[in-house]
């Protein structure tokens, strides 16, 4: 059994990301995993880090503290989010800015170019909804947000990437294509090791 945190990283309620996150969570539960599902839209916090140094970081609001507690509890972290302007929604990026701090998520070590990964031993997956076709995202745009999310956010803190999954295009999709996407999310939830 794996402890899994699934974060619906869409800042609005009722988005397709939420359907993917719920499906992933439900299928993982059916496999006997312990799953916590959180929705970014329900969290109240200031997403602006707002200071010039980590030592001046403001205290975490209760919702952020709960997410941090879930992140340290989990063995596998899944985030489902929309691709907006080639990146993460501002509120989701703000969540990462606020909770992934030195001394808790990573630690700089004198004389070493890269920090110690304090969340090591955990894995991660990313589910991304987009109007941009997957091939265009990879070959024309260069998949910049994938590199940022996997390398500079998740793996930087020790959440080893285990998959980056595009669900696209959303705009213009019909019920059959959305059902197929939900099926893919279900398969991913069932296949957590």
From TrEMBL:
Pfam families attached to this UniProt entry: Flavodoxin_2
InterPro entries assigned: Flavodoxin_fold, Flavoprotein-like_sf, NAD(P)H_dehydrogenase_qn
Domain Flavodoxin-like fold: 3-181
Keywords: Oxidoreductase
Family: Belongs to the NAD(P)H dehydrogenase (quinone) family.
PANTHER family associated with the record: NAD P H OXIDOREDUCTASE-RELATED, NAD(P)H DEHYDROGENASE [QUINONE] 1 ISOFORM 1
Name of the molecule in the record: NAD(P)H-dependent oxidoreductase
The organism's taxonomic lineage, starting at the top: Bacteria, Pseudomonadati, Pseudomonadota, Alphaproteobacteria, Hyphomicrobiales
């Amino acid at each position: 059994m794996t402890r899994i945190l699934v974060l619906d990283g869409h800042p609005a309620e009722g988005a397709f990301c939420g359907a993917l996150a719920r499906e992933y969570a439900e299928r993982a539960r059916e496999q006997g995993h312990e799953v916590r599902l959180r929705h970014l839209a329900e969290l109240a916090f200031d997403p602006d880090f707002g200071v010039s140094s980590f030592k001046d970081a403001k205290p975490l609001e209760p919702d952020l503290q709960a997410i941090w507690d879930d992140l340290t509890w989990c063995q596998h972290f899944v985030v489902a989010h929309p691709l907006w302007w080639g990146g993460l929604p501002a509120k989701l990026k703000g969540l990462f800015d606020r909770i992934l701090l030195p001394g808790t998520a990573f630690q700089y070590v004198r004389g070493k170019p890269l920090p110690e990964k304090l969340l090591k031993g955990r894995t991660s997956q990313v589910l991304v909804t987009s109007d941009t076709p997957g091939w265009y995202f990879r070959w024309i745009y260069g998949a910049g947000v994938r590199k940022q999310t996997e390398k500079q956010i998740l793996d930087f803190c020790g959440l080893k990437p285990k998959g980056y999954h595009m669900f696209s295009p959303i705009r213009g999709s019909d019920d059959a294509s959305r059902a197929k996407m939900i099926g893919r999310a279900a398969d991913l939830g069932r296949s957590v090791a």
